[in-house]
Automatic annotation (TrEMBL):
The chain crosses the membrane at residues 403-423. Keywords: ATP-binding, Disulfide bond, EGF-like domain, Glycoprotein, Kinase, Membrane, Nucleotide-binding, Repeat, Serine/threonine-protein kinase, Signal, Transferase, Transmembrane, Transmembrane helix. Residues 460-726 form the Protein kinase domain. It comes from Triticum aestivum. It is a single-pass type I membrane protein. This is Protein kinase domain-containing protein.
Length: 732
């Protein structure tokens, strides 16, 4: 493992006792409920504990509150080893190794310069508990403090000498030192340090050429300790292998120490600064721990009794057998939080999800970070690609592609702006047309619905076209689930604005069963459109004169004549103002499914007041037009009567009147009437029955009377309607 790793580990262990660690302990539990989690400044996470029921076997900690603040120690039973002989010391150590309590043994003495010939000097052996200064359950490591060996001048004649230190964890103990974290180190101008089972270390400086920083042998040396060392000792000797002995005022030191803690400085080669600064508490040593003498459960097997890894999101890490030195522990394991989690894996629910997005230094993300349970996602922003966890995202499109996209985008924006401006202009134009075509006035009409152009657009298709009159095209379709006919005036209609306004005013005032009902209109166009009820049988002209002639008996024709006359009579005399149709003809008489007639196409209708009976232009179908109106331009009720007379003749003869031959149909019937003859040959053969000739003659007389060139001799439309109604009743 790298030196950087050891440095980070040491920092983590030191932070356990810092205020930042205290904040973490408040956020996440570190021990079992009801158990103390601190001793002074030291956090005590489970499986360690200071109270019965709060620790696993072998993990008890003694919190000594005689110190201020309290300090944490491993429990220990000091042996009675005060003998000065080497044999007695060895017996004491063996006895301690067989116990289950960690301890530290030191051997101190005072010597004079006269004693240096026999460097193996007797000393006083003392024992002390191992002090705990930090715990990291995530790394399964402890930080303890241990004394160090030294040889320093006490006065002018004597030296204080701690020549031997032993750190001992008993057999079958869960604790051991490893070469990964702890080293044997010697500091001095001419000194050596040795250990029981590992290599020695020599520090020699012939001249003052020590280099600060690393321990490379010039004033400071370090060597690894044996792997998984449960018990080891360090001794020092002021004389090096070169035979150089230096008894000046300078101190020499030897110790087991956390390899990342000490950074060599040449100041420690002079005087006793290092000893005075560190003698009271000692130096930090890293100790690993395991759940000793137990193994991880195999995949698929249930957890054994006493299994230490608690709750979900934990995993068991088996300690390799070849790392268990000295045969003290057959096996062991540690508990870790699963990847993406942190906390204490030895307590229930102790492992919590890590929000990796809040710690980009450890969990890099060069894109958009999203935390997930047990991990995190890191995606490149839109328009980029790559593995955002490993490196910065790169643009998906090169510069030329970007310029192309920008150009297309610019054109799109221009087109969009143009479209919006055009849409606003169109909307403003529709509003102007709506106002010009009398929208505000028509809004007040309760029986007229005003449609938008978009509502009528689906109907105005070629597939829905059903015919064309002299004032517009007619389409059929559905509006509000009702079949309707939409009249769209053509652009070359004569005086279309005046005619449209006239039709809307007239139709909004006329409600009769024999007059086509106006449903609504559309004003958002140059030439407004009308919406009528749709009549399925079409016009009377189609019924009489189409190639597929529909059989019509006399009763049906008489009913068409009588009800058409009734509708015209209503227009002439039963509305608020006199309403003249001006274009009465079979094409403007529509039929429903029961052949009930309804008057339509008020394209040249006039709502004429008493003082406005003349028109300067003659509009309509000249075949059915009053000759007097053609000559004078004077449109009256009698003009509609004349046109109705022509319609009656077509109805009984099923022959189409024409203007080009001076209307032979009209002329023939008039001449027969003058001769008082029954024009049997002029009637439709379908109607010529002996019992119906009298009725046919009566219909012909009514028609001829309507065709009188003397306007004053023509009957009124109300008289015509009454006579036809009487003829209709006579059939019953």
């Amino acid at each position: 493992m790298t030196t950087h790793y050891y440095y980070l580990l040491a920092v983590r262990l030191l932070l356990i006792a810092a205020a930042g660690r205290q904040k973490l302990s408040k956020a996440e539990p570190v021990t079992l409920p009801g158990c103390p989690d601190r001793c002074g400044d030291v956090s005590i996470p489970y499986p360690f504990g200071t109270k019965d029921g709060c620790f696993l076997p072998g993990f008890q900690i003694i919190c000594n509150d005689t110190f201020h603040p309290p300090r944490a120690f491993f429990p220990y039973d000091p042996p009675n080893c005060n003998e000065d002989s080497l044999e007695a010391s060895i017996d004491c150590l063996v006895s301690q190794l067989n116990s289950r309590k960690p301890l530290i043994m030191t051997k101190d003495s005072i010597y004079s310069l006269n004693d240096i010939e026999d460097y193996t000097m007797p000393g006083n052996m003392s024992f002390s508990p191992v002090e705990l200064t930090g715990v990291s359950v995530a790394d399964a490591k402890l930080q303890v403090h241990a004394p160090f060996c030294y040889d320093c001048k006490l006065n002018e004649t004597h030296y204080s000498y701690r020549g031997e230190i032993r750190i001992s964890f008993p057999s079958l103990s869960p604790f051991f030192m490893t070469e990964e974290s702890t080293v044997l180190m010697a500091i001095g101008k001419h000194t050596s340090a040795s250990q029981l089972m590992g290599p020695p270390c020599e520090a020699v400086v012939t001249f003052d050429d020590a280099v600060n920083g690393k321990c490379l042998g010039r004033g400071c040396c370090q060597v690894p300790i044996p792997p998984q060392d449960t018990s080891n000792q360090v001794t020092i000797n002021r004389r090096s292998s070169l035979g150089i002995t230096n008894y000046k005022d300078d101190c020499v030191y030897g110790m087991f120490v956390d390899k990342s803690w000490y950074k060599f400085t040449s100041l420690d080669l002079h005087g006793d600064v290092f000893m005075r600064k560190n003698k009271a508490r000692g130096v930090p040593v890293v100790v690993d721990f395991v759940i000793a003498n137990h193994s991880c459960p195999r995949p698929g097997q249930p957890a054994p009794k006493g299994y230490a890894c608690a709750g979900d999101n934990t995993m068991c890490v088996q300690v390799p057998l070849d790392l268990m030195a000295d045969g003290y522990a057959a096996t062991g394991y540690t508990c870790r939080c699963s990847q993406g989690y942190q906390g204490n894996p030895y307590i229930p629910n102790g492992c919590r999800d890590i929000d990796e997005c809040k710690n980009p230094d450890l969990y890099p993300c060069h894109g958009k970070c999203h935390n997930t349970e047990g991990g995190y996602k890191c995606a490149c922003p839109a328009g980029t690609k790559g593995n955002a966890k490993l490196d910065h995202c790169t643009e998906m499109f090169p510069l030329p592609a970007k310029l192309g996209v920008a150009a297309i985008g610019g054109l799109f924006v221009i087109a969009l702006v143009a479209f919006i401006l055009l849409l606003r202009r169109q909307k403003r134009k529709m509003r102007q047309l709506y106002m010009k075509n009398g929208g505000p006035a028509l809004e007040k009409a309760n029986n007229i619905k005003i449609y938008t152009r978009e509502e009528l657009k689906p109907i105005l298709k070629c597939a829905n076209f059903i015919g064309k009159g002299c004032f517009g095209e007619v389409y059929k379709g559905y509006l509000d689930n009702q079949l309707v006919a939409v009249k769209k005036p053509v652009t070359d209609s004569v005086a279309h604005n005046e005619q449209f306004a006239n039709e809307v005013i007239i139709q909004s005032q006329v409600i009769h069963k024999n007059i086509v009902r106006l449903i609504g209109c559309c004003l958002e166009v140059d030439i407004p459109m009308l919406v009528y009820e749709f009549l399925s049988k079409g016009s009377l002209d189609d019924t009489l004169h189409s190639n597929n002639k529909v059989p019509l008996d006399l009763d049906v024709r008489l009913n068409i004549a009588a009800e058409s006359a009734e509708g015209l009579a209503y227009m002439h005399s039963k509305t608020g103002k006199r309403i003249l149709h001006g274009d009465v003809k079979p094409a403007n008489i529509l039929l429903d499914d029961d052949y009930v007639p309804k008057i339509s196409d008020f394209g040249i209708s006039r709502m004429i007041a008493r003082d406005k009976e003349h028109t300067t232009s003659v509009i309509g179908d000249r075949t059915y037009m009053d000759p007097v109106y053609l000559q004078t331009g004077l449109l009256t009720e009698k003009s509609d009567v004349y046109s109705f007379g022509v319609l009656l003749l077509e109805l009984v003869s099923r022959r189409k009147a024409t203007y080009s031959d001076h209307n032979s149909l009209v002329r023939n019937f008039v001449e027969a009437h003058k001769k008082d003859e029954m024009p049997i040959e002029l009637f439709d053969k379908e109607l010529v029955e002996p019992g119906d000739l009298e009725l046919l003659g009566s219909l012909a007389r009514v028609a001829v009377e309507c065709l009188n060139l003397d306007v004053d001799e023509r009957p009124a439309m109300t008289d015509v309607a009454e006579r036809l109604l009487m003829l209709k009743r006579s059939r019953k």
